[in-house]
Specification:
Layout lengths: L2 H13 L1 H12 L11 H13 L4 E5 L2 H6 L6 E9 L5 E7 L17 E3 L2 E3 L7 H19 L6 E8 L10 H6 L7 E4 L6 E5 L1 E10 L14 H19 L13 E9 L9 E10 L5 H15 L7 E10 L8 H16 L5 E4 L5 H6 L4 E3 L7 H4 L7 E3 H19 L1
Parallel strand pairs: 3-6, 3-7, 7-14, 8-13
Antiparallel strand pairs: 1-2, 2-6, 4-5, 5-15, 9-11, 9-12, 10-11
Length: about 425
């Protein structure tokens, strides 16, 4: 695209910014909490909003059995496809509409989209419903540029999915596994000004320690599951300390981590516990092999309960999210986004890895060069992402929309 085309895109985004803000407000007013994960109604209303802009919207409902196996109630994923010219690459813009529950401590209603001092407050407004709005209006700006004479060749697909918080297998994973999309490049929703080129993997396990209950007055006649579970906890935290010395070579990513998120069990105060359930989270840096990590964790747990007679351990995998690694071709995405990011934001836009994990990895696993970039804040903490009073600076929404539209336009040009 020419500088003149880029200027037209910026003019188009500016002219429709108030409309874009209202579009975002309507999106955040649709509760999509995970759990319970009953997200098909919100997807349908989002599809209706997209259709009001003139798009043909594909609705891909995930079968109920598949959804319920993953702890959700309903998932419908949306695809919009827009063809420019002939030939050219297919570029996906993917954002997720599901969110974590709002929790306590809000000073604004979490599902109203209140705007104060140039910020919108709502659950999901930063992560990542903002990018449903930024990607939609980036495509709108590209359509306007084409009508004004810009030469574009290729296809832009909007993928709005509803399963990121539970791993993405019913979201992008479903679309990719069923051959519903075959992109050449992808950009996924992000959570900072930086371009994310890599992220950690994540292994989540449910560890059930089985013992034998007995009366608290005669504990030696039972097998104390909690005492054995304590050995498991000690082993996990010792491993967590050891992992601090393991360093990634990817800028922005430090060390693997290992935490225990929840513990439950026991019958009553005066009864030796017969069962303890531990849920643990092991983050993996891109250099680690998930199979090796999982085998090592299972071995660690089995060894920890040796010497505790009458104890049996079950280990169930809850999630295996592989790390996102840069693929050949991603550098074209990075270069285009950095060039326009510097121009629009007036500062260098770094390309980094992050210790989080996201469903962007699912495109990478299929060999699609992908980076994460969108209307996110400078930092997650600044936006209160996944905390009370989550918010988005609306000027960032406007600027990121221009950056994405111009970068995609260059790739199509």
């Amino acid at each position: 695209m020419t500088p003149h085309d880029h200027a037209r895109i910026a003019e188009q985004v500016d002219a429709r910014h108030a409309e874009q803000v209202e579009f975002l407000r309507r999106i955040v007013r649709l509760p999509t909490d995970m759990p319970p994960g009953d997200n098909a109604p919100a997807a349908e209303r989002t599809a209706t909003l997209l259709e009001s802009l003139g798009y043909a919207v594909e609705r891909h409902a995930v079968p109920e059995a598949f959804v319920r196996e993953r702890g959700m109630t309903s998932v419908t994923n949306l695809i919009v496809r827009h063809r420019f010219g002939s030939g050219g690459p297919t570029i996906v813009l993917n954002a997720h509409g599901d969110v974590v529950p709002p929790g306590d401590g809000w000073t604004k209603p979490p599902y109203e989209g209140v705007v104060e001092n140039g910020r919108m407050f709502a659950r999901g407004v930063a992560v990542s419903k903002s990018d449903i709005a930024s990607y939609t209006y980036a495509l709108e700006a590209l359509r306007a540029a084409e009508r004004a004479g810009a030469r574009l060749d290729g296809t832009v697909e909007l993928h709005f999915t509803y399963d990121e918080e539970f791993g993405g297998l019913a979201g992008p994973g479903w679309l990719l596994d069923h051959g519903l999309t075959r992109p050449d490049y992808a950009i996924a929703a992000s959570f900072s000004y930086a371009i994310v080129t890599a992220h950690n993997g994540c292994l989540q396990l449910e560890i059930t320690v089985h013992g034998k209950a007995t009366h608290g007055a005669i504990p030696k006649t039972g097998h104390d599951a909690l005492r054995a579970a304590t050995a498991v906890l000690s082993a996990i935290y010792a491993e967590a300390d050891r992992l601090e010395a393991v360093k990634s070579t990817v800028p922005g990513i430090d060390s693997p981590t290992f935490i225990v998120g929840t513990i439950a069990g026991g019958i009553n105060t005066n009864v030796v516990p017969d069962r303890i359930v531990i849920k643990a989270d092991r983050r993996m840096i891109p250099e680690e092999d998930p199979a090796v990590v999982e085998a090592g964790v299972r071995r660690l747990i089995d060894n920890a309960v040796q010497g505790h007679p009458g104890i049996r351990v079950e280990i169930r995998r809850l999630l295996l999210a592989r790390a996102l690694k840069p693929l050949p071709g991603h550098e074209r995405l990075v270069a285009a986004l950095q060039a326009h990011g510097r121009r629009v934001f007036g500062e260098p836009i770094p390309a980094v890895g992050v210790p989080l994990y996201a469903d962007a990895r699912l495109y990478g696993e299929r060999g699609v060069p992908i980076v994460m970039y969108g209307a996110g804040p400078r930092t997650i903490l600044e936006a209160n992402a996944k905390r009370a009073d989550e918010n988005l600076l609306l000027e960032d929404l406007r600027r990121a929309t221009i950056v994405v539209a111009c970068a995609v336009g260059d790739l199509l040009g």
